[in-house]
TrEMBL record:
GO molecular function annotations of the record: xanthine phosphoribosyltransferase activity
UniProt-recorded name of the protein: Xanthine phosphoribosyltransferase
GO biological process, one term: purine ribonucleoside salvage
Primary location recorded for the protein, binned into one broad class: cytoplasm
Keyword S-adenosyl-L-methionine among record annotations: no
Recorded metabolic or biological pathway in which this protein acts: Purine metabolism; XMP biosynthesis via salvage pathway; XMP from xanthine: step 1/1
Taxonomic classification: Bacteria, Bacillati, Bacillota, Clostridia, Lachnospirales
Cellular-component GO terms for this entry: cytoplasm
Keywords of this entry: Cytoplasm, Glycosyltransferase, Purine salvage, Transferase
Family recorded in the similarity comment: Belongs to the purine/pyrimidine phosphoribosyltransferase family. Xpt subfamily.
Amino acid sequence: MELLKERIRKDGVVKEGNVLKVDRFLNHQMDVKLFREIGKEFKKRFEGEDINKILTIEASGIGIACVVAEIFDVPVVFAKKTQTKNIAGDVYTTKVESFTHGRVYDIIVSKEFLGEGDRVLLIDDFLANGKALEGLAKLVKDSGAELVGAGVVIEKGFQPGGDFLRKQTHLESLAIVDAMDEKTGEITFRE
């Protein structure tokens, strides 16, 4: 998706430790017009799939998932990283490791919102090692729902997550970063 790659080149910042900071438009300040184009692209890439739920993980995937869900005309569910009083009753839970935060989270989805008969598309902002999407896929499996695929805005192609997930499900990444240079700020994309 050329529009997205241009925006990453313009506003993305390469930080030490293979971190790509895109908080100017993706996961802190959000460019909703760009999100709409992202949603349309995912709709094209998953054309013909019968999807009735979008699933993401809090927090930075929620904005994108909401716009994508609007375009697909389906509800969005997000896995929470902490149990709250608002989640009553039975839940699906698993552990995921965050590359960005360097810690392990328990993620939780109420059984009320995910189950047999659901055909689920996972949506997230980044894919590095794939642990968040792997955790979400486990929640889908545990629920008896069917995983249709996963849509990622930015994939770090030099990390193992994409290769692993492509063996498990239909994965669509809108921009795959092949290399980043923290000294020059240069970002190279897979074509």
